[in-house]
Design goal:
Layout: H1 9-12, H2 24-29, H3 43-55, H4 60-73, H5 75-84, H6 86-93, H7 97-103, H8 105-108, E1 115-118, H9 125-130, E2 141-145, H10 161-175, E3 182-188, H11 194-197, H12 212-229, E4 234-237, H13 242-252, E5 258-260, H14 261-281, E6 290-293, H15 297-312, H16 317-321, E7 324-328, E8 331-332, H17 342-345, H18 414-421, E9 425-428, H19 438-445, E10 452-455, H20 467-473, E11 479-480, E12 489-491, E13 494-496, H21 507-517, H22 524-535, H23 554-571, H24 582-589
Parallel strand pairs: 1-3, 2-3, 2-4, 4-5, 6-7, 6-9, 9-10, 10-11
Antiparallel strand pairs: 7-8, 12-13
Helix pairs in contact: 3-4, 3-5, 4-5, 4-7, 5-10, 7-10, 10-21, 14-15, 14-22, 18-19, 21-23, 22-23, 23-24
Amino acid sequence: MAGEPRLPWVMSDPLTNRGTAFTTAERDRLGLVGRLPDAVLTLDQQVRRAYEQLRRQPDDLAKYIDLEQLHDRNEVLYYRLLTDHLAELLPIVYDPTVGQAIKTYSHEYRRPRGVFLSIDRPQDLRRSFEELELRPDEVDLVVVTDAEQILGIGDWGVHGIQIAVGKLAVYTAAAGIDPARCLPVVLDVGTDNETLLNDPLYLGVRHSRARGERYDAFVAAYLDTVATLYPDALLHFEDFGAGNARRFLERYGERYRMFNDDMQGTGAIALAAVRSALAVTGVPFREQRVVVFGAGTAGVGIADQLREAMVRDGLDGDEATRRVWLVDRPGLLLDDMDDLRDYQRGYARPKGEVEGWAVGEEGDHGGGDAGREGGREADGEVGCDADGESGRDADGDSGPGSGQGRGRDEGIGLLTTVRNVRPTVLIGTSTVRGAFTRQVVQEMAKHVERPIVFPLSNPTEKIEAMPADLLRWTDGAALTTAGIPVDPVEIDGVRHVIGQANNALVYPGLGLGVVVSRAERLTPGMLLAAAEAVAGQVEGGGPGAPLLPQVENLRASSAAVAVAVVRAAVAEGVARVAPDDVVQAVQDAMWQPVYRESSRESG
């Protein structure tokens, strides 16, 4: 008995397949006669049917799988559905649902998507890209991960390819980066996840995670290869471990067109929210005092961006650094601590500065789980990258969330830091649930009229405080945003809309701006321009207005960010293309999910 006929090329390629939308003439020309039902549907009709099918799925993971199957069949339909329902589907195609999908990747595997690079076969690295048969000018964006620190779930080896796929889906849906010009990549360097290593169906390299010179050489070879083969591409790094993310950016950021969303994207969205808050308070950046609770990749990335903003507002570098305090697992970071990471040392306070501070008070939380390797953002995205080794109960049974007192040997905790520093800005990237207690927040509010408090950790069970509580504890005075979606809160007749600190408000437009300008590298000025463009979309909103724009308007927001980034690239002399009409150039560059003429005949 004959098997099912093989699909023609135009239907087997998701970039060209349009299913029941092929017209009668196209079916005749492309050899599709008799291969489809008689009816010819419009793209709008296909979207309606696909959305109905999606809504019938029993849970978010089933919806994710349904969307990925559509992605594998018909990319135009997939992106049109995603674009039409972006606010609803963003948490499905990316965090938090993608975290569930990553855990089951080897068991739910259906077909490959992306480039898989094994550290055990470094000789295949260049060949893996060359066999894609893409010209140097045909790739705009490459998202790579080594999956050491995936979201809040840790090390998932080759399963991390799904985080690169999801990130690119957001780039396309939110900013119109052409999906045919994007590559998801996983550096499979092994895993320390025992569950994977002992799973007979695990699809990745089956040994512990490579480190040291061998690992560094592999990353260097990857960068050299992609930069040589695709010289115009933006090289996006995602979910590398805390010890690697920053050093690679510092080592290679001037040499390659690199972007690290965990550090730079998180810092930019926090900067945007702070700028919006300062538009309310009227107090300049140079007068802010900032406490960051959770000194991992995200927390220090935020500190860097806020410090840079203070410098631009007139302070010198040392003065700006002295206005930022970091609290992590050992408490307030001090210069006599011997276990600080390189990227934390610049913010460590002189030990003599804290002599005489009262410590060990009840409710005085140290950094505990904040900052070593464990929680992270929900692209929802932001800044929950505590990078911390977690393993501890998020409810705080044995850590900073417990509310127990801390002695001097255990460091200076959050409450003591707030009492002595009197911060104007308090930011949480710790994944320590409930760390911003009533006592901490009200202590802060004693010394500042409008406390700026951003609990950025997610998901909900890891957030430092709920915005509703922050507003109640301060009689509506707090200016807040969160790393999770939050319903509006009414206090004394004022409806407070809580913007979500979602990196997706920044990185898609930032990437589009780099693509349009062909910038040689990503500069601090371009990141600042992106943050200012985000903040500029909500300024002057009145009492209770959100500090960040709503995700529902993400495509328009991304276009505005891209325009600002292009102009900054031109002004800083790093743009290789300087459009006469930047707004139109950005619009022209945005890929639209519509069917185009097929370029090949049947046969």
